[in-house]
Amino acid sequence: MSIQPEDRTTMDLFSPSRPGRPRSNPYDRVQQSRYNKRSQRMRDKQSGLHRLEVKLQADVVARVDEATQKLGLARADIINEALRQWLHI
């Protein structure tokens, strides 16, 4: 019987016990990251958000960053609001 890396319930009977604090997550860091990213995409999709990648000039990004500091908002919020105003939504 082999153990699958995704198996959370089966104890690994053949590995030597390690000293210290037990692992809080059975997955390694790469698998945890992949799982968390997938979960985040699913949450975004359920809340009606869509991913969009845009390349911007450095001076535009600098101005957006200035606005984030002044207003205390995230870049995405500022860009979203600017697009809404430009599109009259």
Features:
single chain, 89 residues, mainly alpha, 3 helices, 49% helix, elongated
Topology:
Layout: H1 29-46, H2 58-71, H3 75-86
Write up this protein:
The structure is a single chain. The chain has 89 residues and is an all-alpha fold. The chain contains three helices and no strands. It is elongated and about 60 Å long. The N and C termini lie far apart (59 Å). The model has no long low-confidence stretch (mean pLDDT 86).
Assembly form of the protein: single chain
Q: What is the radius of gyration?
A: 22 Å
Number of helices: 3
Strand residues, percent: under 5%
Main beta sheet strand tally, sense and closure: none
Structure class: mainly alpha
- Pick out the low-confidence regions: none
Number of DSSP strand runs: 0
- Average pLDDT works out at 86
Coarse shape: elongated
Question: Which series of helices and strands comes N to C?
Answer: HHH
Give the % helix.
Answer: 40-55%
CA distance, first residue to last residue: 59 Å
Summarize the structure.
This protein is mainly alpha-helical and 89 residues long. It is 49% helix and 0% strand.
